[in-house]
Write a structure and sequence with these properties.
TIM Barrel; about 35% helix; nine-stranded mixed beta sheet; globular; alpha/beta; three-stranded antiparallel beta sheet
Length: about 350
């Protein structure tokens, strides 16, 4: 397995909780940025990718032909999973036709909620009806699979609100659903407003509800924040959790090959200038030795339904409610998933 991640650092507006490398005032750089990404890909001489993920930012802010030109520059296997993130506001039949024509197999929608006041609390611009229409357009376009991204724990979101979001999401029959607890990132508007910070107990209750609803609907959990119908697991994310090799393209993109990690310049201007000048866009490098890789492998595996070998955890008696033994593996229970970081402290 080998993955390629392409970072698109442009958004129409920045959400209150977002700390990603993305900008709302630099769309004039779109053509030159895509050109720089194509050059970086050409210089990299990559093997065929088994998965490609175009994230951001908001990749759907790219006109269809421009995104198509970018995807055409990515070497990939004939059966590669190709995911593109989409803001529901950007969805159109023409856009999705262009994506399909250039090999996109999977669309990941940033829905976050199907309750209007919760969307506003998150700083999102779309409404629930727009999200529903976007999914309908994707289904009509014939994508083999799609994902809905949801976030729970926003200010003013009740348990009934979250239940309504889950019901609306399941009504669209998603093959894959991601549900993330809202986190407070330094430097964001959310971080500066303590009154809007999420409550741990509230988020725990919503997570338990999520797992129960999705499991009953036939979506099985395969990573703490991800559920899928059989055969619809995100191959690109599985690559990350298995410490696989991948190449990041674009500003702020991270790469990993055989224990070596590196990342590109954070701003699109610096990235474009480096590529145009024939220089490397790499801003930093980290070499991981065998022990460091092993140290990181345990917590990553623990987050997944594959778990870790039973003997990789010490003090299993104290973890009775948090892990379950299955075929020689220790797998997190629902309660254990709520306390995954604490369980990881018992890895040996």
């Amino acid at each position: 397995m080998f993955g390629v991640y392409v970072h698109i650092p442009f958004c129409r507006r920045r959400c209150d909780y977002c700390a990603f490398a993305t900008w709302t005032d630099r769309h004039h750089l779109l053509p030159s940025y895509v050109g720089a990404c194509r050059q970086e890909l050409a210089r990299a001489e990559l093997p065929p990718a088994t998965s490609v993920f175009v994230g951001g930012g908001t990749p759907s802010q790219l006109p269809g032909p421009l995104l198509g030109a970018l995807l055409d520059a990515v070497p990939r296997s004939a059966d590669a999973e190709v995911t593109v993130e989409c803001n529901p506001d950007d969805a159109s039949a023409a856009l999705f036709t262009a994506w399909r024509d250039h090999g996109v197999t999977r669309v990941s929608f940033g829905v976050q909620s199907f309750v209007t006041h919760v969307l506003r609390a998150l700083g999102r611009a779309h409404d629930p009806a727009t999200a529903v229409r976007a999914v309908e357009l994707a289904v009509a376009a014939g994508f083999p699979t799609f994902n809905l991204d949801l976030i729970f724990g926003a200010a003013g979101e009740s348990l009934d609100d979250w239940a309504a979001t889950l019901d609306a999401a399941l009504a669209l029959e998603p093959p894959h659903l991601s549900a993330y607890a809202l986190t407070v990132e330094p430097g964001t508007p959310l971080a500066r407003d303590a009154a809007r910070h999420p409550d741990d107990d509230d988020q725990a209750a919503k997570y338990v509800m999520t797992d129960a609803r999705l499991t009953a609907a036939g979506l099985g959990w395969y990573e703490i924040s991800n559920w899928a119908r059989p055969g619809h697991e995100c191959q690109h994310n599985l690559l990350y959790w298995a410490q696989g090799d991948y190449r990041g393209i674009g500003c702020a993109a991270h790469s990993h090959v055989a224990g070596r990690r590196w990342w590109n310049a954070r701003t699109p201007e610096r990235y474009i200038d480096a590529i145009a000048g024939g220089r490397s866009p790499v801003a930093g490098v980290e070499e991981l030795d065998r022990e460091q890789r092993r140290f990181e492998a345990g917590p990553l595996a623990l987050r997944t339904r594959a778990g870790v070998p039973v003997d990789a955890l010490s003090g299993n008696g104290r973890l009775a409610r948090l892990v379950a033994a299955k075929d020689g593996r220790a797998v997190l229970t629902v309660e254990g998933r709520l306390l995954a970081n604490e369980v990881a402290l018992h890895l040996v």
